[in-house]
Every structure is written in structure tokens, then in C-alpha cells.
Amino acid sequence: MTSVVTVSAQHFTLENLLGNEFLPRGIRPMVSSEDGMYYYQADPQQTAVIKYAYATGEAVDTLFNTRTARNCTFDSFQGFLVSPDENRVLVYRDREQVYRHSFRANYYYHDVRRNMVRKLSEHPSKQMIPTFSPDGKMVAYVIENNIWLTKFDFDTESQVTKDGEWNKVINGATDWVYEEEFGITRLMEFSPDNNLLAFVRTDESAVKEFSFQTFNKQLYPDFYRFKYPKAGESNSTVECRVFDIAARTTRTLDVPLEENGYIARIKFTHDPDQLAVMTLNRDQNRFDMYFTSPRSTVSKLVLREENKYYIDSEWLNSIHFLKDRFIYVSEKDGYSHIYIYGLSGTLQKQLTTGNYDVTALLAVDGQTETVFYEAADESPIRRNIYKVNINKGQPQKLSQQGGYNSASFSGQGKYFVNRWSDAETPTVITLHDANGKQLRILEDNQSVRAKVAAAQFPKREYVTVTAADGITRLNGWILKPYNFDPTRKYPVVMIQYSGPNSQQVLDRYSADWYYALLNEGIIVACVDGRGTGARGEEFRKGTYMNLGIKESDDQIAAARYLASLPYIDAKGIGIWGWSYGGYTVLMSMSRGNGTFKAGVAIAPVTDYRFYDTIYTERFMRTPQQNKQGYDNGSPIALAGRLEGNLLLVHGTADDNVHFQNSVEYSRALIEAGKHFDMFFFPDKDHSIRGENTRKYLYEKVIGYFKQNLK
Predict the structure, then answer these.
(1) Of the CATH numbers 1.10.8.100, 2.120.10.30, 1.10.10.10, 2.130.10.10, which one belongs to the domain with range 31-159?
(2) Does 2.40.50.150 match the CATH number of domain 336-422+425-454?
(3) Model confidence over 574-588: pLDDT tens digits?
(4) 459-708 shares the fold of 160-318
(5) Per-residue pLDDT tens for 543-572?
């Protein structure tokens, strides 16, 4: 029999881990100028917008300063945008979050040449998603679901749409599910000649409303209501429109779209009479890109890609138009690679090849026709940065160290900021030119590195584990307590997420909450099962139509591998996860025949019928099409098979994975006579942040594993 023994040799606590002590310092956001030679940055006090040269790092101009700007009524701001011609700066204050990414705020417009500040809009409501015209002389923005337009030279503000209404019609901005699952908050673009404004009109009238109670220490609680399309239910209907700025007329474009389909992106080519409208069918296994004429409204199909599984919509962000061709990332050869097409839609060449995934298209230099990208070519757990010329085609590695590199490029790919770390080294941030030459170190995090060394952080031991199919090799890591004794038997907690195309096993620095488990004499392990990322399409999409099955099978197989190790207590295995990870905890504990002694599931989906259309149907199609898949992958349906001690945790104001999931799962467990523990966080969303909640949460999680893994 084993016991959990407190280990005092490691010099860190949960408070250290949740605080900033071991957190690598970042740098303030650097916003590239249009030509890519300069960047804008707010000063540390958020009182000025300063222009710097990438080459030297020296300040060359101050575009805005609250202390010296005329008519400025505020001392500081929260964020800014600079017009392409640098003659105007927009700053915002009083930011108010809408959903995960979107926010509204009070924007102020600063005329750089006149050094004058005024409110962007005279409307009493806050503004969203301001977008400059290419010549910088206009800005479009959304107020209360309608598009407005300010012309700076004429000092005029006009309303472009008038039918916008909360929970009914949205113009230019996106609904909840587009924002959450396509990662976009704006579907509104100026034409390159500044004459037209294209936008998507979203009608969510037919989408059913979801509501939850908000308590907020009130005597009579309120309700929060919003449109949330659940799997198999009606989506918003969308159409693409174009506003002619001079004529003040709006046309609806003739874009073919099947019922409940998506307009996932719109983007002008270099030709103002060519708007690329990118659509997905509801099953998301067919992607169509049309070139639509804003004048004639006629659409021409340029690119169609069909997939036996689904099209990964994140690659639609990578479509980049040159004068006579475009760049697109596809998985058509079994891995994600970069392809070059002519504007007619003819495939010209495959730019990258090999049994590895390109994991991001980072920048394009249109003048030299050079493409910059990130790839998992060396190993699925590492990332490198490359550049390749479209015409010469020999990739050149720009990153200089093995481990995990991520890069953000200036305009036209002239310079890039590289963030590098490995499992033992906190992030080092450096600035490079387009050839990869390091110009300077922006943040070396030496002080954090010293603290990590002094705290005697354990080294991650990387392992490979055989999947449940008996063939596939899975990547994993193990963390052992500081004074590890190989003759003892230790309990273990498995940390995982397991969702499609996700990764937790990476050669990248982290100092997360679970290190605190080591202080309790608990080993921590992590294995990325089938369905996770950077290992090609078949591996990544192998869970299609059957979410939850292979993922939980592989966690069970990994647990059995751990149980076979001489220093692991086979009767003391725990599993933890959040969101999709929480879902996998429930599936694993219900399908593992007692493999797991204890589990903690935070904000889990408990039946994919409760989750949104775009995410769920991408991997499962609709419940009407795939009833068996939904039933097989439902923790609610499997409640009677749950084995082990379960702690279920949820925020009551979760607008993403609704508290409803845990309520209905509790009902099923009660009906099945399965005892469990549950804890809720009042008025907390999916991230369960703020006040004392994170510390309280992890104290509860650690205490639960200490109590139940003896």
C-alpha cells in the first residue's frame, strides 16, 4: 500500500506557480507599419503611441501623446490602431468584453498632422471592430449591430446599415458561434480602391436562444440571453453585401450557399472588382472560394476543395493574394502543406512537401515572392520557422535553436520577432531580419531562469506509449518529485486535453499548476492520444464521427502503461482535464473498467448535442446524421459505467460549455446510483478566473487527488 508523502525539497508552491514568479516575461505588443520597416508601441503608462525602427530599435517619432495632444480629455488608453498612411491614430478606452475575443469601447480619433483629438462617433453607444480604408481616409465600425462610416477629410459620420438589432441581425460583426469556432469578429472589408465596403449580414432570428441565470449577489438574479446554435439546430443565415460609398447604395451579392452553410471569410484580391468570398457547407467537408464582382454581383467558382473528413477552417486565414496568384494551405497529400494557385484556380505548384505538417503560414513578401511559415518538420513536439521562395522553392530554416519556435512578422515579412523555449528554458524573445539574422534580444528571461534553477524544477522525461490499437506510438512526458525514490511506488495524475488537433506534449517551457502535485509526492504524466496535432491528417482526423472513443481508449492504454512501471502504484492513477479534457476524463472513467481511482473534470461537455454547431458538426456531423456516434460518445449515456472517485467542477455563467452539461450529467449519475463530488463557481465563465478562484480551484483539485489516490 502506498501513501502520499509531502516532498519539501522543491522550492515552489501553488502560489508561486499561479503568480508571476515562474512566468516568462513578454514584451509589449509591436504593431507593424504598412511597409514593415517600423513598428508602433504604446509606452508602459499607455499614454503615448511611439514609432520605432525595427532595424535599430530606436524611437523615430511619437504619433500620439495624451499629454500634448490638443482637446485630449483623458490621461491614458487601453489600445490603439494606426491608419496605413500614419496620419491618424485611433485609441480606445472603457473596453467592455462581449464574448471571448470581441469587445466594444469608446474610440477616439487623433489627427497626427493637426495634433487634435475627438471622439470617433457622436453616437452614445460604444463602437466595435474599427477598420481603416487602405488610403487611411475613412474608418468603418459597428455600433449596436449596424455599420457606421466616418470620412476624416469631410469630418462626417454616416450610418451604412439600419436593420441591425440585438439577437436578430448583425452587420459586419459576427455571431457567437462564428467568433468562438472560426475565430473571427469582423466580416467587413474595404476594396483596394477605397470605393466599396463589403460586409456579411448575419440574420440570427431563427437561432434558438440560450439563457442562464446570473446571480451577482443580487436579491433577484438576472438572466443572460444570447443566440447559441446547438448541434443539429438552425444556424444564422448569412449573405454578402457591398456598400458603394459614393453612390450610397447597397447590393446583395449572388454567392451560392447551401442552407445553414457558412461564409467563413471575405477578402478583396488586388482587383477591386474581385471579392473573394469563402464558403463552407454545413458539414464543413467542402470549401468553395468564389471571386464575386461587387458591380455585377455575379460569382465565379475559383477553388473547390472536398475532404472525406472535414476542411480545417483555420487555413482560410492563410489565403494570401499576390498580383497574379494566391497561396493556400491544404491537407490534400495527407499533411498540411503550402500550395500556389493561379487566379483562375489552376494549381501551379506544391511549395512544401514531406511527411510533416506546416503548422502556420506566417507572412508573405509580395515583392520577392517569399513565403514564411512554421513547421513541425523535425518532430511533432517541436516547431521551426522557414522561408521559401515561390519560384526557387528551396526552404531555408530561419530559427536557430531546437525546441519550440513561434514567430510574428512585420508587414511584407521584412522582420520577425521569434519566441523560443524548450522544456527547461523559459521563453527567449529575439528580433531577426528576413534572413534569420538575430538583430537583438528583446527579453532573455534570465531572472526567471535563475528562479527556476533555484526552485529545482524537475526535468520532463519524454516517453513514447503504445496506443490502444497496439500499433500507433504516442508522445508523452513524465514529471517526478525532486527526491524521487525508484524503490517506492507513487500515485500518478494524468494531465490531458485530447481534443482534435490539440497538443499538450511539446518541447516547450511551462510551469503550470500541476507542478504543485509533485510537492505532495504525486507523479504527473501526460500523453497525447490519437486525434491530436502535428502528425498528419489521418492521425489528426482519426476520431471523426466518433469523438471520445479513441481519445479515452488511448488515455486508458497510457494509464495501463504507467501502471506497468515499477515505481507507479497501479491502484493510484488519477486523470484531470478541462473542457474537452474534462469530457475525456468522464469518457475514460466510464470506459476504463476501474483503471482510474480518481478523476477531476472541469467544465466538461457531457453530450455533444449540448454543444455548438460549427465545432461539433465539423467532427461529428449532426445528431440527425450520426445518432450512434453521439450516443457512443455521451458521458450521460455512459453514466452507469462510471468507475472511480469523480470531482465535477463548473462555472455557472459558462457561455461556451454550458453549466447545463454538468446539471444533466449529475441527473444521470443520480439516476444510476453513482456517488460523486461536485463544485460550482458562482457567475464564472469557461475560464473560471478572477478574484481568488484559480487558487481555490487548484487547492480543491490537489486536495481531491491527495485524498483519493492513497
Answers:
(1) 2.130.10.10
(2) no
(3) 999 999 999 999 999
(4) no
(5) 999 999 999 999 999 999 999 999 999 999
CATH of domain 160-318: 2.140.10.30
With 0-12 CB in 10 A as exposed, 13-18 as middle and 19+ as buried, what is 324?
Answer: exposed
Q: Given its phi and psi angles, is residue 70 left (phi above 0), alpha (psi -120 to 50 degrees) or beta?
A: beta
Is 686 known to be catalytic? yes
* CA 296/CA 280 separation, integer angstroms: 23
289-295 — which CB contacts under 8 Å span 24+ positions?
A: 289/319, 290/255, 290/256, 291/343, 292/240, 292/253, 292/254, 292/255, 294/191, 294/196, 294/198, 294/242, 294/244, 294/251, 294/253
Per cent of the chain over pLDDT 90 is 97
10 Å Cβ neighbour count for 122?
9
Q: What is the pTM of this model?
A: 0.97
| CA atoms within 13 A of residue 198's CA, in its CB half-sphere | 27
Distance CA 120, CA 90 (A): 8
Q: What is the identity of the amino acid at 61?
A: D
Examine the residue annotation and report whether 579 is marked as an active-site residue of this protein.
yes
Mean pLDDT of the chain: 97
From CA 136, how far away is CA 114, in angstroms rounded? 15
Q: Please tell me which residue in 175, 654, 655, 685 is annotated as part of the active site.
A: 654
DSSP 673: T
Which among 600, 559, 557 is positioned nearest to 582, based on CA atoms? 600
Find all residues with CB under 8 Å of 247, minimum gap 6, and list them.
Answer: none
Domain residue ranges in the chain: 31-159, 160-318, 336-422+425-454, 459-708
List the catalytic residue out of 406, 579, 588, 662. Answer: 579
Q: Which CATH architecture has domain 459-708?
A: 3-Layer(aba) Sandwich (3.40)
Find out whether 381 and 562 touch, Cβ atoms under 8 Å: no
Give per-residue pLDDT as tens, 427-438.
999 999 999 999
